[in-house]
């Protein structure tokens, strides 16, 4: 339990009042060496916290082991023919109904003509919803590992995965953040550099939001500046940007899938709001395997406040209603635009 009850902390300042939740040392406690190798590999870093890698778009080089390549677009003919075949229950050769027409030589005209001869309407050709195959670890109310990730903020407190508190600021700013063209995005302390690399996204004191671009080099990418109205909380593994208390990273469930987590239902978020247990798969991570849920919270302070269990039960629930928990305080934390009209759009699945 937390040292200070919620009702004793003013809601307007609770989120940014870390020392009221957990006592801080009087001086920054630095666990890292003053310098890091120029070519940093994840396995050489002193943390074991899951490394969050979220590229800016899906056109990142295929050599990146943390990205997935684009799917080859399907042709209209192939798609429609497959739908017809599925609708009619035809076998692989479907020679009786289609003659010599195959997936490779069927033209759009052939397909439209065929659908007309078979008296199929557009409604008939709609694909039948397919229930995704779910790993057994999520079945029968089994427990899976529950972790959290957040955005490291320069000149704020954070911690290593071993629980050692670390201050992400100071005068020892000797670690450059370069982009792909070797343009300097900023210079940070070794502690901040490690957190940027480990989490994949970080917020600089200037208000610049930085995302990892190439892990092997490593290089970074500027995805937004102070006052931005997009990419408020960083990038996910697809087109959907991350949404606090909604986005989860999962490697073995469909992108965009809604989930219900009973352990989150009724959870006090610290600002008068209660979670309803509904989340969405917006992200993945190469740092852990299957059967794990990584819950996105905006800051380290939120992580401390929530004090979640180490495991949870997961249910796929398409009817789950996602709630938007973002408020003006979160925009302030992220040094984003303070126009609260952008808040409703954050939850929309792109």
Automatic annotation (TrEMBL):
<feature type="region of interest" description="Disordered">
    <location>
        <begin position="48"/>
        <end position="73"/>
    </location>
</feature>
<feature type="compositionally biased region" description="Basic residues">
    <location>
        <begin position="62"/>
        <end position="73"/>
    </location>
</feature>
<protein>
    <submittedName>
        <fullName>Uncharacterized protein</fullName>
    </submittedName>
</protein>
């Amino acid at each position: 339990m937390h040292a200070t009850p919620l009702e004793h902390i003013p809601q307007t300042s609770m989120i940014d009042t870390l020392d009221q939740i957990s006592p801080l040392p009087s001086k920054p406690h630095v666990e890292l060496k003053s310098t890091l190798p120029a070519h940093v590999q994840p396995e050489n870093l002193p943390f074991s916290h899951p490394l969050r890698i979220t590229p800016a778009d899906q056109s990142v080089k295929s050599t990146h082991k943390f990205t997935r390549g684009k799917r080859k677009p399907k042709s209209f003919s192939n798609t429609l023919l497959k739908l017809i075949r599925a609708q009619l229950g035809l076998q692989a050769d479907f020679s009786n109904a289609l003659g010599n027409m195959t997936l490779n030589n069927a033209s759009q005209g052939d397909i439209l003509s065929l659908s007309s001869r078979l008296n199929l309407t557009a409604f008939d050709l709609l694909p039948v919803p397919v229930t995704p195959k779910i790993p057994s670890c999520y079945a029968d109310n089994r427990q899976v590992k529950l972790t959290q990730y957040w955005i490291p903020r320069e000149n704020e407190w954070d911690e290593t995965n071993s629980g050692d508190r670390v201050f992400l600021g100071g005068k020892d700013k000797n670690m450059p953040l370069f982009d792909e063209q070797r343009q300097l995005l900023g210079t940070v302390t070794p502690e901040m550099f490690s957190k940027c690399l480990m989490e994949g996204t970080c917020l600089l004191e200037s208000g610049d939001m930085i995302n990892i671009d190439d892990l092997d080099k490593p290089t970074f990418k500027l995805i937004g500046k102070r006052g931005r109205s997009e990419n408020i909380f960083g990038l996910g593994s697809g087109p959907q940007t991350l949404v606090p208390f909604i986005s989860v990273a999962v490697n073995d469930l469909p992108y965009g899938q809604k989930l219900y987590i009973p352990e989150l239902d009724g959870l006090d978020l610290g600002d008068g709001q209660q979670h309803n247990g509904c989340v969405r798969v917006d992200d993945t991570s190469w740092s852990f395997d299957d059967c794990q849920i990584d819950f996105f919270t905006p800051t380290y302070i939120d992580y401390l406040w929530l004090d979640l269990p180490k495991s949870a039960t997961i249910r796929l629930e398409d009817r789950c209603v996602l709630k938007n928990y973002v408020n003006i305080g979160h925009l302030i934390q992220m040094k984003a635009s303070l126009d609260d009209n952008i808040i409703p759009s954050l939850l929309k699945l792109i």
